[in-house]
Amino acid sequence: MSSARQQKELETKARIALATTKDPLERLRAACLARGAQGIKGLSILFRVMDDDGNRKLNVEEFKKGVEEYGLNFTKAEIEDLFRLMDTDRNGSIDYEEFLRRLRPPMNNFRLDLIAKAFAKLDKNHDGQVTVDDLRGVYIVKNHPKYMNGTWNEDDVLRHFLDCFDYGHHKDGIVTRDEFIDYYSGVSASIDNDMYFDLMMRNSWKI
Predict the structure, then answer these.
(1) How many Å apart are CA 146 and CA 152, to the nearest integer?
(2) Rg of the Cα trace of the chain?
(3) What is the pLDDT of residues 75-96, one digit of tens each?
């Protein structure tokens, strides 16, 4: 997980980018990352929740509603420009999974491989999602302060850990592979050095 210092650095870098860049996609990325490592993941969860018919597409009104509901300070014109940029086939809708892939800060294969290894270690039954059952025996709870003082049991600690990957009220106790990558793309953006990213991932997940 990202440290408080990394979060602060990420937020500072993102605010500078937001103030200087004119590119609509770069501005949206910076606005999300200004909220820390969870910023892009939060927007992605909102889009998934808004996809009522499950077709993985959003029209301009749904897209606008998502950006506004997330509290990003974009004008109507900026949102429409961004939508037009993403609607490459001009059919009035965008595939938001493709949109989110483009929104994530770029990561090299070295980092993507580390994230994939960490997720594979957590996803014990290989169903593409991590639940409390997957975490038992992998995520050690005994050093958690609330477990030590008896406030929480093991499941409480594990569920709280999973909630770190979710956003706002949309907490389902499940972390998908995409949500995991969304989260770590934000963490990655705060770490310039590949070796430091490698060390952090190996220490976090013992991979």
Answers:
(1) 5
(2) 18
(3) 889 888 888 888 888 888 888 7
